[in-house]
Q: What sequence folds into this?
């Protein structure tokens, strides 16, 4: 028996948490990665596939930070062309194609339509999108084209027709961010990395003024362990300054946190296959309405926030802004009562000199070393792989590790193992009991939130339905993990409290 009364055979190849904990403290590591978001998971995959020994430690669950809270686009960022950022866009377009090839089970080609209401809109957008196509070179994504009014209305039947002149169709990618993250963690583990969630870095170890390791606390037992490393990589995104000040209390903040919110509606708001793009909102951003997992995802905003929270909440102003802006472009105006879920994430924007408008800060990634600690932040989900490649190149150099070539450009990302039983959990969502068992046995889920928010996307697809599923999910998890009724009750309570931050309908009823 290895965990929750399960035998090794029942667990297949899965590594248990106890095994990972034992491994974590057993060795001196080539690389210790702090942070289990897209950047940290990318670094773990890159380092492990090069043959370096690597340990990744995440304070909460994998993807709890920004990496489960994106707009779910695999894109070059066409809007950065307006600022002349051709290099950034070209690099992201290359990564867009790689991600489609390496994770075809999670990434798909998505058509987008930019509606044109003024006569000059269509030629302007068409010029920009033609340049975007050109920079993409030979790619599996289709080419942009002009659509007349009738064709726009056919593909976006719920769009406001009054004043519509036509539109431009273009293509980008779309994905499931938290699922890709879990699959990256699995890919890292399969290639020899050790990855632990609920392991918070509380201290850095030093030899003189050089960082030589970390101390982490296991949230489940409260015990703290010290681990030495040839190099420590700080991949904590919008939290990176808190780790940098552990290395050097005088370190000046490098990140300006900026929040972005999304609202989720049912499919009736966008019943076709195409997504709609509002190219310029009053705060200078792009607003997307995208079909996603049978729902309509609308966002986002860009609001500077004073601190980085692990569970950021959309403000009333952000919610009103999205409802109002979407309402201007959709024939049926969405209201609070239509919102199935609301969620927000924090961008780790790297500070530029002067200026407070976060929409204008750099979207590129940055690598910085201080006292032997390597911080990698900024960038976007789409570019996680080349961020990781750069970071591991620099980390190996810093640690004097033997140089080894990066192997991730064409590395296939592991998909989830097939689930067995088909007993459904809720009429509004496609999930089954077997999905819960798989999440616990094979995907390191430890809490009801881990399952309903990130292994499955119930919380952001329909927060009310997720709350209704929680007791059954807690019971199935308790059986898997060998937990008692008190644990089950506490899990349901904690999840219900968390879900309140995602529920708007209840408030507005
Ligand atoms: C609203 C919004 C929309 C976006 N949309 C897109 C999009 O459509 N496409 C795209 O390509 N990009 C998008 N992005 C950008 C993308 O989501 C981020 O660039 C990316 O997720 C950042 O990943 P990360 O790993 O650097 O940070 P995170 O995902 O935040 O990971 C950092 C992790 O570090 C952990 N951590 C912090 N402190 C500690 C500690 N002491 N010990 C251990 N662990 C710790 C945190 O818990 C966290 O899980 C969007 C971002 C936002 C905010």
A:
């Amino acid at each position: 028996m290895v965990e929750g009364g399960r035998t090794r055979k029942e667990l297949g190849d899965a590594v248990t948490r106890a095994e990972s904990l034992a491994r974590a403290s057993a060795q001196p590591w080539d690389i210790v990665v702090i942070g289990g978001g897209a950047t940290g998971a990318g670094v773990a995959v890159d380092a492990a596939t090069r043959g370096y020994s690597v340990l990744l430690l995440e304070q909460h669950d994998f993807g709890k930070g920004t990496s489960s809270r994106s707009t779910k686009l695999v894109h070059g960022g066409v809007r950065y062309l307006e600022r002349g950022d051709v290099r950034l866009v070209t690099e992201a377009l290359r990564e867009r194609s790689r991600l489609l090839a390496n994770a075809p089970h999670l990434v798909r080609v998505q058509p987008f339509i930019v509606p044109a209401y003024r006569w000059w809109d269509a030629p302007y957008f068409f010029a920009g999108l033609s340049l975007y196509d050109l920079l993409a070179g030979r790619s599996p994504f289709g080419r942009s084209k002009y659509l007349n009014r009738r064709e726009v209305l056919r593909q976006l039947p719920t769009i406001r027709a009054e004043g519509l002149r036509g539109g431009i169709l273009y293509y980008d990618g779309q994905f499931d961010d938290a699922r890709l993250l879990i699959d990256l963690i699995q890919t890292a583990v399969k290639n020899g990395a050790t990855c632990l969630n609920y392991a918070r870095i509380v201290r850095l170890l030093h030899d003189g003024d050089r960082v030589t390791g970390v101390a982490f606390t296991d949230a489940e037992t409260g015990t703290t362990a010290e681990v030495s490393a040839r190099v420590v990589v700080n991949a904590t995104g919008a939290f990176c300054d808190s780790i940098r000040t552990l290395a050097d209390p005088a370190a000046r903040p490098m990140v300006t946190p900026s929040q972005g919110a999304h609202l989720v509606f049912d499919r009736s708001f966008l019943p076709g296959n195409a997504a709609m793009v509002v190219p310029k909102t009053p705060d200078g951003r792009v607003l997307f309405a995208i079909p996603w997992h049978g729902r309509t995802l609308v966002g986002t905003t860009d609001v500077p926030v004073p601190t980085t929270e692990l569970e950021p909440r959309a403000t009333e102003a952000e919610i009103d802004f999205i409802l109002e802006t979407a309402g201007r472009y959709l024939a049926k105006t969405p209201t609070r009562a239509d919102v199935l879920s609301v969620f927000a994430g924090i961008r780790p924007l790297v500070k530029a000199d002067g200026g407070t408008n976060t929409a204008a800060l750099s979207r590129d990634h940055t690598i910085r070393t201080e006292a032997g600690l390597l911080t990698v932040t900024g960038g976007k989900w789409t570019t996680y792989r080349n961020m990781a490649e750069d970071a591991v190149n620099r980390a190996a150099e810093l640690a004097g590790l033997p140089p080894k070539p990066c192997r991730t450009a064409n590395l296939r990302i592991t998909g989830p193992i097939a689930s067995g039983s088909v007993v459904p959990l809720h009429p509004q969502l496609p999930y089954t009991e077997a999905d819960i068992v798989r999440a616990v046995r094979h995907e390191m889920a430890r809490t009801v939130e881990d399952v309903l928010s990130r292994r499955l996307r119930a919380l952001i697809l329909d927060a009310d339905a997720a709350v209704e599923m929680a007791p059954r999910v807690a019971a199935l998890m308790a059986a898997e993990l060998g937990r008692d009724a008190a644990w089950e009750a506490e899990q349901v309570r904690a999840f219900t409290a968390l879900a309140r931050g995602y529920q708007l309908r209840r408030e507005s009823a």
About this structure: The pocket of flavin-adenine dinucleotide is lined by residues 34-40, 57-60, 64-67, 69-73, 200-201, 235-239, 260, 300, 310, 345-348, 377, 379-382 (CB under 6 Å). The mean pLDDT is 93. The longest strand covers residues 255-266.
